[in-house]
Write a structure and sequence with these properties.
Elements lengths: L12 H11 L4 H14 L5 H11 L3 H9 L11 H7 L15
Helix pairs in contact: 1-2
């Protein structure tokens, strides 16, 4: 997946903004992780989950990548079901060269 494939027409303004921000991060790996998560999950998340997602999104991409890949330990504040759900969408960072043709 290389970008938004879901329409945002049926989403409220907050969810549209989150979807856009998930696909337009500073690091391509985080575009893929958060973008895939948002496309699949965003429409059904309750407001409290959106709050938590936005808190996670406020972290630096370099930190998020390291936590998701296990390069650095995950801070206690992010040991939540929401972070686990997001991390489940991670691309295979080790076996795939993102953005390069095979």
């Amino acid at each position: 997946m290389t970008g938004i494939s879901r329409t945002s027409a049926d989403l409220d303004p907050r969810r549209r903004r989150i979807l856009f921000r998930c696909w337009h991060r500073g690091i391509r790996e985080m575009d893929l992780v958060l973008g895939q998560f948002a496309e699949t999950e965003l429409a059904d998340l309750p407001e409290e989950a959106l709050d938590e997602l936005e808190t996670i999104m406020a972290e630096e991409d370099t930190d998020l990548v390291k936590w998701i890949t296990g390069e650095h330990p995950l801070p206690e504040r992010f040991r939540t079901p929401m972070f686990e759900r997001i991390a489940a969408y991670r691309p295979d960072f080790e076996d795939r060269r993102l953005g390069q043709a095979d």
